[in-house]
Amino acid sequence: MSDFDSELDASGLNCPLPILRAKKAIAAMENGQTLRIIATDPGSVKDFEAFCKQTGNELLSSGEEEGKFTFMIKKAA
Amino acid sequence: MSVRLPGPERRESILNAAQRLFAEKGYHGVSIDEIAREVNVSPAILYRHFKSKKVLYEAVLQAMSAQRESYVQTVINSGTSFEDVLTGMTQVYISSINDNPDLLRIELQSLLDRNPATSDFFKNRWKSFTDYIEFSLNERLPYETPNREITILTAGLMFQGMLREALVQKYLQPEDRLEDVSLYELSHELVRLFLRAVGIEKSRLSRKAVISG
Fold it and tell me: Which of A32, A72, B130, B152 could cross-link B156 (Cys pair, CB 3.0–4.6 Å)?
């Protein structure tokens, strides 16, 4: 079983597409569920931090491996 | 007559002068001596901070990219419709040029300079628009649209061209033909014309927002 409920691959896309698609994905999720996002735009690190800070959703983790950025976001209850 | 400044402030003042001169004259039109004169230091001191003109130029770009416009706020605050997001992005982009018109000047200079560092930098800035437009049209244009792929590519370029020309007219021309047009009106009008051109009707909801706003 995976440790997230939904996944979004935003590889190759520049801001604001990853954020926009995450917003839509989160809207379709239940409170407390988690979304895993994969992105390649280096600007997405700052963008997802700002996004979570402003929307109240929780950024559980954020990491980078070989140019791929992974974010785990938990939908605020 | 040189005033002694602490290192970081000196560096900052060199960067500011360099940005202004590169914007005005292009990469090849400016010498290190000229930048040094502008900030009242000897070229030797300038070289202590930046070991070459190329390094200094890249540092100017780096400093500008730190002010990279963020579309996060737009996405959080606006609706998620194509027209709302595109209008919000356009407003953010126009504001960034409004705050620092040198950004637009350096972009135009760099189109002829053929400097790889700059062309990547500006390509990436516009990629936010072209990606968003291409992605959205790909979702919305019917599959049977003739020349579908070329239409989508051209649409991205068309918007980039419209917006860049409007910015040139508004911020770089001595006789400002758009003087009485607010940033708000300009962005709405550009998006409205663009949507009509690609055959997407503006939704009634956002039309109402235009009138009330």
Answer: B130
The answer to whether the Cβ–Cβ distance between A16 and B74 falls below 8 Å is yes
Chain B residue numbers touching A20 (CB-CB < 8 A): 75, 80, 85, 132
Q: Does B71 touch chain A (CB under 8 A)?
A: yes
Catalytic positions of A, written as ranges: 15
Residues of chain B with CATH 1.10.10.60: 7-65
Average pLDDT over residues B2-19: 84
Inter-chain Cβ pairs, chain A and chain B, closer than 8 A: 48
Q: What integer is the mean pLDDT of A47-57?
A: 93
Indicate whether B208 pLDDT > 50: no
pTM here is 0.84
Superfamily of domain B7-65: Homeodomain-like (1.10.10.60)
Task: Give the percent of chain B with pLDDT over 70.
Answer: 91
> Distance from A24 to chain B by nearest Cα, in Å?
8
The yes-or-no verdict on residue B67 having pLDDT over 60 is yes
**From the list A16, A23, A51, which residue is nearest B132 (CB)?**
A16
Read off the pLDDT band of B209 (50, 70, 90).
very low
Q: What is the per-residue DSSP string for chain B?
A: ------HHHHHHHHHHHHHHHHHHH-GGG--HHHHHHHTT--HHHHHHH-SSHHHHHHHHHHHHHHT----HHHHHHS-SSHHHHHHHHHHHHHHHHHH-THHHHHHHHHHHHT-HHHHHHHHHHHHHHHHHHHHHHHHHS-TT-TTHHHHHHHHHHHHHHHHHHHHIIIII-SS-TTTTS-HHHHHHHHHHHHHHHTT-PPPHHHHHHHHH-
